[in-house]
């Protein structure tokens, strides 16, 4: 079992990078879908590219995954986490974004924080809820709710819009559960762990895509570039950072990135796709940041003391 979470300035930098990266992912997914890639093959290609890249890096490093021989329970957990952290949520998000806006897909990721706090309270030592964390969580959630009301629930007119919204929220549930299980694994090499999880995800995703959608399509060069980008940046690179954050700072701290994702998904949508910028964005962003600050006040206080 791992030691208590250690939150450092690098932890804050990593979740900031993850917030921007994942906030822009939904726009890239829409580009791929518009280019003719069906959702399950989009998910499969994304995780397969990422697994190949991380596999090469891990092979070059030549480091073992676990310091000790893993138990059957550890292997079982790896398979479950591999599915919950890539195959299932990637497929759900890609399928859901056929019927909902990228704004909703981004905002739905804030549900990870809602799910992960009570789960961690009962399963992870040192992650118990207290009054300050609860107040911060509620304030941050109000900010997310304002953001949702401003843009995300604008109807797309799709027949499957309700099902698409449910799919996005279920993807958030997958990320929350995988974060909790990830924290409970024994000590492991972070690059090796990220690689193995992606490899498992690819092994699961490809046959599912083939069974649901048939043989893979032949995309245009532009769409190929989009798929490679999805595999390299928000999947391989971000998955490695995610593993580092969860293993070092804990799943509750990692969940803070999901408060950033809705803001960045709306901001980048406005800047890149010309989507309307909600008037309530500044208020929502302020509330989210206040909620984050309150829930992690102790960590912020320690960081300020170290910087003196």
UniProtKB/TrEMBL annotation:
Domain EamA: 13-148, 164-294
Mode of membrane association: Multi-pass membrane protein
Keywords assigned: Membrane, Transmembrane, Transmembrane helix
TM ranges: 12-34, 40-58, 78-96, 102-122, 134-152, 164-182, 191-212, 224-244, 256-274, 280-300
GO CC entries: membrane
Localization (cell): Membrane
Keyword field contains Transmembrane helix: yes
Domain of life: Bacteria
PANTHER family referenced in this protein's UniProt entry, alphabetically: EAMA DOMAIN-CONTAINING PROTEIN (PTHR32322:SF2), INNER MEMBRANE TRANSPORTER (PTHR32322)
Family the UniProt entry places it in: Belongs to the EamA transporter family.
Protein's recorded name: Drug/metabolite transporter (DMT)-like permease
Species of origin: Sulfitobacter undariae
């Amino acid at each position: 079992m791992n030691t208590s979470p250690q939150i450092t300035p690098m932890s804050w930098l990593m979740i900031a990078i993850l917030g921007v990266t994942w906030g822009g992912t939904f726009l890239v997914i829409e580009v791929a879908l518009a280019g003719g890639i069906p959702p399950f093959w989009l998910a499969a290609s994304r995780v397969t590219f990422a697994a190949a890249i991380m596999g090469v890096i891990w092979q070059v490093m030549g480091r073992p995954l676990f310091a000790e021989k893993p138990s059957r329970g550890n292997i079982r957990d790896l398979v479950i986490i591999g599915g919950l952290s890539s195959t299932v949520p990637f497929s759900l998000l890609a399928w859901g974004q056929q019927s909902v806006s990228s704004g909703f897909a981004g905002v739905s990721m804030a549900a990870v924080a809602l799910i992960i706090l009570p789960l961690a309270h009962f399963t992870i030592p040192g992650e118990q809820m207290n009054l300050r964390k609860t107040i911060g969580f509620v304030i941050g959630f109000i900010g997310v709710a304002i953001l949702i009301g401003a843009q995300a629930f604008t109807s797309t007119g799709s027949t499957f819009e309700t099902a698409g919204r449910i799919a996005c929220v279920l993807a958030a549930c997958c990320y929350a559960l995988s974060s909790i299980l990830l924290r409970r694994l024994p000590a492991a090499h972070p690059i090796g762990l990220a690689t193995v999880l992606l490899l498992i995800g690819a092994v699961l995703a490809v046959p599912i895509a083939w069974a649901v959608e048939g043989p893979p399509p032949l995309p245009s060069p532009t769409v190929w570039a989009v798929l490679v980008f999805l595999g390299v940046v928000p999947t391989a690179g971000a998955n490695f950072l995610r593993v580092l954050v969860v293993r070092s700072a804990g799943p509750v701290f990692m969940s803070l990135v999901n408060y950033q994702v809705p803001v960045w998904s709306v901001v980048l949508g406005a800047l890149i796709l010309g989507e309307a910028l909600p008037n309530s964005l500044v208020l929502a962003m302020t509330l989210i940041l206040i909620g984050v600050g309150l829930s992690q006040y102790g960590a912020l206080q320690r960081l300020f003391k170290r910087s003196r």
